[in-house]
Amino acid sequence: MTHTSYEEAFGRAPQATAQAPGRVNLLGEHTDYQGGFVLPTAIPQQATVALGRNGTDEHVLYSANLDQTIRVPVGEVGSGFAPYLTGCFALSGVQEGLNAFITSDVPSGGLSSSAALEVATLRALRDLADLDLDDVALALRGVQVEHEFVGVKCGVMDQMASSLADTRTMLLIDTRSLDRRAVPFPAGAEVLVIDSGVPRRLAESGYNERRAQVEEAARLLGVPQLRDVTDPAAVETLPPILRERARHVVTENNRVLAALEPGVDAVRFGQLMNASHASLKGDYAVSHERVDELVALLQAHPDVYGARMTGAGFGGAVVALVRQGQATATAQAVLAGYSEQGSQVVP
Length: 347
Description:
Elements: H1 6-10, E1 16-27, E2 37-53, E3 58-63, E4 68-73, H2 82-91, E5 98-104, H3 113-129, H4 135-150, H5 157-164, E6 170-174, E7 180-183, E8 189-195, H6 207-221, H7 242-259, H8 266-282, H9 289-300, E9 304-309, E10 317-323, H10 327-336, E11 344-346
Parallel strand pairs: 3-5
Antiparallel strand pairs: 1-2, 2-5, 2-6, 3-4, 6-7, 8-10, 8-11, 9-10
Helix pairs in contact: 2-3, 2-4, 3-4, 3-5, 4-5, 6-7, 7-8
GO biological process, one term: galactose metabolic process
Keywords: ATP-binding, Carbohydrate metabolism, Galactose metabolism, Kinase, Magnesium, Metal-binding, Nucleotide-binding, Transferase
GO molecular function: ATP binding; galactokinase activity; metal ion binding
């Protein structure tokens, strides 16, 4: 039986409810686990988590989107979507059974639906248990959940963006120092996000492999992280594969910094996005042929300044910088030429 509220699912009111947004990244992909720079923004779509104590020794987790209930003994991780919540519970010292009601309109694949779920869960826990967690510490706890319970060695961008970004500006994050500041969108432009309809699973993909490759590249170059390399020519001494992976990280960091230079307009920003996609497709090899098709259609549209895949890759969403007021018409025109079932537009 499908439940539409916590009260309907559990017969009582929740004790804490919180939301957190998904995010889309404009520039700075696959650099956050090498101490690099990123430029995400929050999207309007959010994950919502309602929590309440149940007086038992098991967690009862209900996803309205999946119409699925998972029961997990306190202290265990569980399977399916459970680790995203039970990891938050474990790291927050929860030792009693909780009921959780989860709903989300954040599309899966490249828009940080998992980070939104973690941040919403941790926000609800912060209220429920009066946890001493500021927004940065909360984001870092979400990263720890991914590493220790989900099995994805992600960087800090997704959880930081979900915890700290808004929809009105981009959030420049130095993922080494965690310094951050709001950056305005290029004048006369707006953001368009389209889900390619190609599903992906990070833990089953090459994501962790890519991280291991760039860590080895940094080791061979004698630097703590590829963030410390600014000249792309420096990576040419590396063996094949590591060279290409490192070249992407170095040039991608440079693209973010170039986007922050005075006088950068929508045209220049779009060029940097196009170059980012070419690097993600070629050097980092994390795109997908259907994603490339969608990006090419966007890049060819006269009202699009630039477009690229966004997120970890291997499917998922694409992002475009579009002439102000033209996002809806552009999406309609592009999707008319793109037949992938399940594609959707995120305004």
